[in-house]
Every structure is written in structure tokens, then in C-alpha cells.
Amino acid sequence: MSEPAPAGYVDPRAHVRAEVLAAAGAGATVVDALVGSVTVSGHCVEVGTDVGPISADRVLLATGAFSGHGDTPLAGLDVEYALHTQLYVALEGDEADRLAGMPSIIAKHADPTGDLYLTPPVPDAVRPGHHVLKIGMPQDDHVRVSVADLSAWYRTDGDPATAARLDRILRGLLPELRVADSWTGSCVTTYTPTGHPAIDWVGPGVEVGAGRIACCVGGNGYAAKCAPALGGLAAGMLLGDPWPTEVDRDLFRARFLS
Ligand SMILES: Cc1cc2nc3c(=O)[nH]c(=O)nc-3n(C[C@H](O)[C@H](O)[C@H](O)COP(=O)(O)OP(=O)(O)OC[C@H]3O[C@@H](n4cnc5c(N)ncnc54)[C@H](O)[C@@H]3O)c2cc1C
Questions:
Q1: How many domains are contained in the chain?
Q2: Per the domain annotation, does 26 fall within a domain?
Q3: CB 147: neighbour CB atoms within 10 A?
Q4: How far apart are CA 14 and CA 8, in angstroms?
Q5: Is the pLDDT of residue 128 over 90?
Q6: pLDDT digits (tens, 9 = 90+) for 23-68
Q7: Each residue of 131-144: b (16+ CB within 10 Å) or e?
């Protein structure tokens, strides 16, 4: 299926910069810090960070794959991970011109081991005037791993066998591609039992409807394109709005491993 413009791709770093600017413009104070603990203390939530403690009336945890880091009510959240390997290819000379108009591709097969994604050439942030394209795929099985293991995976260059496979697929899709340089990387996507993010109250007080900590975790590989809608659900819940009747509440409940 080919989807014409405005379909395309989102630059994730630009997306985050835009959201941060929008939040600051709406009056938010943005603190860039590592959070080590989130605990309810009396009538507020204490957030322990590496730049000092912050007290809040309510807290929304949107911590992605690292939801289990530190002292957090999300410890034990029922999530699995897909470990991705990506191959980045810097193009020679005018290859980007030859590939102008190339679409972003997401390939889904009956056999998921063939699933992949491929983005068209984008300007190389490191080497002005050059272009890079990216192809990637997840490893076959979802895994349950510790935060430490996730961190270790992010520090690798991905799986060499998967990278070699991606190279073969890329050269099949784009014959005679002229490559100046290539390298590989690793990434993770987070999955919940329902296939939708856990957007829910968690931690002390939840059972009596007096929760102060909420979560929006588990993108299931689709949360970039749906970020405004998912963020809207989480923000509405945090502000006490009724859950929209057109959205099945149970699909977004947080489930914990017993
Ligand atoms: C290779 C790849 C390709 C993808 N392709 C697509 C696609 O085509 N379409 C699509 O819709 N989605 C795609 N996704 C999925 C999408 O990126 C995720 O679903 C989405 O980013 C999830 O958003 P999030 O805000 O829940 O988590 P994240 O984007 O992971 O954000 C969580 C943030 O919390 C921060 N954090 C975590 N713990 C702490 C802590 N203790 N202290 C401080 N900060 C913390 C992290 O640093 C991070 O910035 C892709 C993902 C990958 C990896």
C-alpha cells in the first residue's frame, strides 16, 4: 500500500525538540535530569533526580523502555521488548539525487522475521552535504530483560548477523547502491499484553481513586505516529477528565507481573 504525502517520516529528535518548545511555551519548566526515584510522600510526589529533589502534586511517567529504572511504582510492569538492529549507509556523491522521491517503507510479512523499515536518504547531521539512509529490523522474539541489560544492548552496535542480513536486503531493494560508508546501531521497542500503551494510575492511592502517579508506557512500535492522541489520553486522565467513551478503557490498563 502506498500512502502519498503528507505521509512520510518524522525526525524523532526534531519531534522531541518541538514538544519541549511547545511545553515551555505553554508555561512548563523543563528539567533535563535522570530520575532515580518516584515516591508518594504525604500529599505530594517526591521525584529524586540527579539535579536534586522535585515535589509535585501529580506525576506522569512516560519513561518508555526504561520504566523499571530506580525506585518506581512501575517496577514489575508487564512489558516485553523487541531488540532492533539498524544499518546506516552514507551515500556517495549524487546517490541522494538518484533516490529522490524514495518513500519510507515499512514491510510487514506473514512471517515476521522478514519485517523491516527503511527510510529515504536524509542529510547527515555529522557530515554536512552528505546523506544517510537507514534500514532496520527487530530480532525475532520479544524478550523480558532487566534495565541493566537494556542499557548494555543500547551500547552495542546491534546484532552482526542481523546487520549482514539488512545489508543483503538493502542491496536487493536498491541495486548498485553506491555506499561511501556504513555503520550499525541498536534500539528497543516496548510491548504490553494488550498491544496498546499502559495509560493508567499506578502506585499508592489507586485503589481508592486517589492516585498521584500515572503512566503512559509501552508504545508497541506505533507510538511515534500516534503521539498526540496517546499524550492526549494521558493528559486528560491526569487532569481528571472522563475517559473518552470511544476508546476501550481496558486496552490501556497497566498490568503487572504477579
Ligand atoms: C528503530 C525504531 C523504529 C520505530 N519506528 C516507528 C514508526 O515507524 N512509527 C511509530 O509510530 N513508532 C515507531 N517506533 C516506536 C516509537 O519510537 C515509540 O513507540 C515511541 O518513541 C514511544 O514513546 P515514549 O514517549 O513512550 O517513549 P520514549 O520515546 O522511549 O521516551 C521515553 C523517554 O523517557 C526518558 N527516561 C526514561 N527513564 C528515565 C529516567 N529514569 N529519568 C529521566 N528520563 C528517563 C528516556 O530517556 C526517553 O527520553 C520506532 C522505534 C524504534 C526504536
A1: 2
A2: no
A3: 14
A4: 14
A5: no
A6: 999 999 999 999 999 999 989 999 999 999 999 999 999 999 999 9
A7: bbbbbbbbbeeeee
Judge whether 131 lies within some domain: yes
What is the average pLDDT score of the chain? 95
- For the Cβ of 222 lying below 6 angstroms from any atom of ligand 1, the answer is yes
CATH number at residue 160: 3.30.70
Ligand 1 centroid, distance to 38 Cα (angstroms): 20
Do 135 and 86 belong together in one domain? yes
Tell me the per-residue pLDDT of 130-186, one tens digit each, with 9 for 90 and over. 999 999 999 978 999 999 999 999 999 999 999 999 999 999 999 999 999 999 999
Q: Model ipTM?
A: 0.98
Give the mutation target among 63, 77, 200, 215 for probing the ligand 1 site: most ligand atoms within 8 A of CB: 63
End-to-end CA distance of the chain: 41
Is residue 154 domain-resident? yes
Determine if ligand 1 sits within 6 Å of the CB of residue 179.
no
Containing structural domain, residue 246: 60-75+193-252
Domain final position from 191, 206, 223: 191
